[in-house]
Amino acid sequence: MSKNDKNRNTPIGLDVGTSRIVTARQAEQGFACESQLNAFVSIPHSRMTESALSREHVPHVVEGGSIVVHGNESERFADLLHTELRRPMTRGLLNAGEPDSFKLILQIAGSMLGEVPSGQKVCFTVPAAPLDAEQDLTYHEATLRQILTEMGCEASSINEGLAVIYSELADTNYTGIGVSCGGGLCNVCFAYLSVPVLSFSIPKAGDFIDASAASVSGELANRIRTLKEESFFLNGHFPDKLHQVLGVYYDEMIRAVVAGMREAFAAANRRAPKVVRPIPLVLSGGSALPKGFRERFEKILQEGEFAVPLSDIRLAADPLTSTAKGALVAALSEA
Amino acid sequence: MSGSAKVPGLARATVIEWRARRIADPLCRLAYLRGVTGSDGGKRFGRWTRVACGLALLLIPLIPAREAVLAPAAVNLQTEPPPEVWIVEAAGDHDSYSNGLRIENRYATETHRRWYGVFERGRMESDAFERRTDPAGIVYHATESDLAPFEAEENARLQRIDEALLDYVRRRQSYHFVVDRFGRVYRVVAESDTAYHAGHSVWADRQWVYCNLNAAFLGIAYEARTEAGQEAALDEAQIRAGRALTDMLRSRYRIPPENCVTHAQVSVNPRNMQIGYHTDWAAHFPFEAMGLADNYRLPVACVLLFGFGYNAAFLRAADGRAWAGLTFAEEAVAEQAAARGLSSAGYARLLQKKYRTKMAALHLTGAFEEIGDEQK
Q: Is residue B4 part of a domain?
């Protein structure tokens, strides 16, 4: 995509996830998406390092006595330095333990959006409140809106699970259940004719799997995540201990999501619209990438009753980008 | 973003959904839905969205054409007519046909001569029916019986199971024909007679509505199991034999291709007004291999005409997906309901009443026999 294409004032969908930031734009044929890790590493400053990074076009900023490398490149540096990645966000929200989280997200998002014309429409994703827990999402949403406004954008927001529905369930008139299994949270939304009826999040997601598996195996969580996304199969047969450990924690995450869904839908049954025909459930997000995830989810869901009849459980066409695409679809439907 | 959004009631939702389905462009459809439900947070649509959606909505007729609802014309299921097939030799213990079909008569039995009543589709308000004696269609079944591995070492066991099965279905007069694992075709009940294969069942073609198909349709059973989530594998010999048998019956009785359907497509339970009391061939029936189009795309008659519903267990049997014909029938019912200002559920209840009065009419005139519990 050329710089000019980037700068056209067409809406942008922006998925601000704990693990990744993904942008979606309209392209000649469908959508064009770009993804960067929502992470960084600090390395000691030296002129030589700084010039090497500039020469190699590695996104970085100099902060006092450190160089901060962010986005996808941060993973390579973390691996080289054998250190953990740092995150501007945790559990779906801005990381209170990282004082510069605001600035880092501004930098990562800024590098992806490029120079935007004034009034650029951007629809960004926000998580739902956790089930059975009071959590104020206002600060998180307001901060992201401020970041985008400072860049000159006209920002609106959409719930992550609803974005999945807007991206994947056009064929059912945007009626169904969207589940986004991300890094910090799994977001669930039930929409009826595009209206979000029920949404909540479960604070067990990819990071929980990575951290739990890392603590058992002694590996770095970064490496666990890479392994999980590139070569892990959720088919019940594990070639080694690490895969077996991952399988255990994947199961725990799925069971937590399914239990949350059972509880929330049973509680909402009276006020939810009467569903005349079975509805689809669509799975998306980076944690839904391993082969066999959909089948495992379906099996666990079928172990017990569920308040809403389901027609099918499907995987998003591209689980990594469907939330950003849904945000773009929301923005385009208002354009 | 959804502060002002309101979930529409069932009647309003039916109308909204019906209109939305007629907007081809997904973005435009979403804009329409968000506008009418308020899930756009009360935002006004942009200029181009307003223009595009306005045009799309203008093109939607307020009331669907009656023909569009009643006829399965939206589904193109044209197939080649079957070749002419004639009987070459009737040798007592078997019959041979010009297309290579051989039917074994060793297990053949008789019940009573077929006759049945059919309702005219264009006169559904009337309970008058026509009396017929020729078979109007074919229902494909699976025996759902024990299967041994299809291997040479298991030959003796395969034969034993085969004989036990044939003996059993002969005693129960369960089908007109059985196609065994080796592709051998057995006549069980004479073609001229009623076999007790379909139980409570409904089907309709373009002109006629058939209720309780034991007499109206011929029953062909494959020795096979059709378990939910698993594709029932017919072997090559069964497919060849089934095709030859289908061609012979279609040629001999002028059976239209849309009347060749599976048991799951026609089976109903009048006690709870749900479809799929029997679910054999709820998915994966090889219609194409039988010289037919994908008849799962045909509107499901009991839903379309008599307001039957279905549940999750049925969908599981259908491999988790509603057939295109099921969705079509449901949408047609929703459209008819909307056109009458009724909820889909309310309109379905009216249709169900129609089913019961038609059954009563057939029952009073003896046009069908009581169906025992074991045959439902």
A: no
Joined tokens for residue B230: 């698993």
β pairing state of B208-211 and B202-204: antiparallel
Asked whether A82 and A128 are in contact (CB, 8 A), the reply is: no
Q: Count of residues for chain A?
A: 335
- Cβ separation of A193 and B46 shorter than 8 Å? no
Predicted confidence at residue B39, as pLDDT, reads 67
Residue B192 and residue B97 in one domain: yes
* Structural domain that includes position B232: 68-375
pTM, full prediction: 0.56
Distance between B250 CA and the closest CA of chain A, angstroms: 35
CA atoms within 13 A on the CB side of B258: 21
Question: Cα-Cα-Cα-Cα dihedral of B212, B213, B216, B217, to 10°?
Answer: 170
Q: Would you say residue B5 lies in a domain?
A: no
Q: Mind giving me the DSSP string for B81-137?
A: PPPP--EEEE-SSEEEETTS-EEE-TT-B---B--EEEEEGGGTT----EEE-S--E
Residue B67: pLDDT over 60: no
| Domain formed by A167-315, architecture | 2-Layer Sandwich (3.30)
Distance CA B227, CA B118 (A): 33
Q: Is residue B209 part of a domain?
A: yes
Whole-number percent of chain A with pLDDT over 70: 94
Distance (Å, whole) CA B147 – CA B165? 10
Measured CA to CA in angstroms, residue A140 lies from A16, A17, A90, A116, A127 at distances of: 11, 12, 11, 22, 9
Interface test with A, best of B1, B48, B274, B314 (most A CBs within 10 A): B1
Q: What is the pLDDT of residues A8-35, one digit of tens each?
A: 568 999 999 999 999 999 887 778 999 9
Alpha-carbon span B172 to B165, nearest angstrom: 11
Count Cβ atoms within 10 A of the Cβ of residue A164 and give its class: 0-12 exposed, 13-18 middle, 19 or more buried: buried
What are the structure tokens assigned to A48, written together? 């030589």
Cα distances (angstroms) measured from residue A23 to each of B327, B370, B376: 35, 65, 56
Whether the Cβ atoms of residue A63 and residue A86 lie closer than 8 Å to each other: no
Residue burial A66-82, b: 16+ Cβ < 10 Å; e: rest: ebbbbbebbbebbeeee
Could you tell me if B371 lies within 8 Å of chain A, comparing CB atoms? no
Nearest CB to B34; choose among A310, A311, A333: A333
Residue B79 shares a structural domain with residue B202: yes
Asked if residue B296 is part of any domain, the answer here is yes
Q: Which domain CATH number covers B351? A: 3.40.80.10
Count the residues in chain B. Answer: 376
Q: How many domains does one find in chain B? A: 2
ipTM above 0.95, yes or no: no
Distance in angstroms (rounded) separating the CA atoms of residues B277 and B256: 25
CA atoms within 13 A of residue B286's CA, in its CB half-sphere: 17
Asked if B54 and B150 sit in the same domain, the reply is no
Q: Spell out the CATH class of A3-43+73-160+321-333.
A: alpha beta
Angstrom distance (rounded) from CA B19 to CA A251: 41
Q: Do A311 and B330 touch (CB under 8 A)?
A: no
Same-domain pairing of B153 and B35: no
Structure-token pair, residue A261: 């869904």
CATH 3.30.420.40 residue window(s) in chain A: 3-43+73-160+321-333, 167-315
Question: Could you report the per-residue pLDDT of B346-370, keeping only the tens digit for each?
Answer: 899 999 999 999 988 888 776 665 5
